[in-house]
Specification:
Blueprint: E1 17-22, E2 27-32, E3 41-44, H1 46-51, E4 59-62
Parallel strand pairs: 2-4
Antiparallel strand pairs: 1-2, 1-3
This protein binds zinc ion (ZN).
Length: 68
Amino acid sequence: MTGRPCSRATCNAEAISTFTFVYADSMAVLGPLSQKAEPHSYDLCSVHAERLSAPQGWQVVRHVVLPS
Ligand SMILES: [Zn+2]
């Protein structure tokens, strides 16, 4: 357990994945929880990772299979 919460303001669930914006490629990458917080990345719980949507024109790449 990492103890890191979801980065959504109204959510206190435990983060299970990290979402990173790669501005150079207009790509949003959802991957396993990173070891440390990084710029342009957000920790998300399973609910918010599932609901994730990228800005228009951006590609979303998922590297994790979310538990159902
Ligand atoms: Zn959340």
